[in-house]
Design goal:
The chain is mostly beta strands and 132 residues long. It contains no helices and 11 strands. The strands form 3 sheets. A 4-stranded antiparallel beta sheet has the order 4-5-6-7, with no helix packed on it. A 4-stranded antiparallel beta sheet has the order 8-9-10-11, with no helix packed on it. The chain has a 3-stranded antiparallel beta sheet with strand order 1-2-3, with no helix packed on it. A hairpin with a 4-residue loop joins β6 and β7.
Length: 132
């Protein structure tokens, strides 16, 4: 719904949804490392059509519908590392107008860019230079 606020709940391993005036609507997710589960979610982004969420946690990055349905994993399963599609501390996320997802991979000191237009979680093949 327009105006809903999506909040990563780090301690409760879920995403909470509120109306613009602060009323609780629902939550989704629970502790786990399988698809659709979270371990300490930290970052969240909503695409410009308000239909897709990207959420980062200790296990990588996943895409969901705004209703909380799992779509796909952007990162490789067991994706801790420094290869393309792997992360060490994914945090900030943003969707570009070209339907790419930019992920701040903090401990690898880089940004990774994914083509999420295909909605398959495939690494797009670009890792910009190290970010200082």
């Amino acid at each position: 719904r327009d105006g809903d606020l999506f909040v990563c709940d780090f301690d409760n391993n879920c995403v909470q949804v509120f109306t613009a005036d602060g009323r609780f609507v629902r939550k989704f997710g629970e502790l786990g490392s399988s698809d659709g589960y979270f371990t300490r979610p930290r970052g969240i982004a909503v695409d410009d059509q308000c239909s897709l969420l990207a959420i980062s946690d200790r296990n990588g990055v996943q895409l969901f519908t705004v209703s909380g349905e799992f779509v796909c994993r952007v990162s490789q399963r067991g994706g801790i590392g420094d290869r393309p599609g792997q992360f060490r501390g994914p945090r900030g996320l943003v969707f570009t107008p070209d339907y790419e997802l930019v992920v701040c991979d903090t401990k690898n000191r880089r940004l990774q860019v994914f083509d999420v237009g295909i909605l398959r979680g495939k690494f797009y093949g670009r890792t910009p230079p190290t970010v200082s």
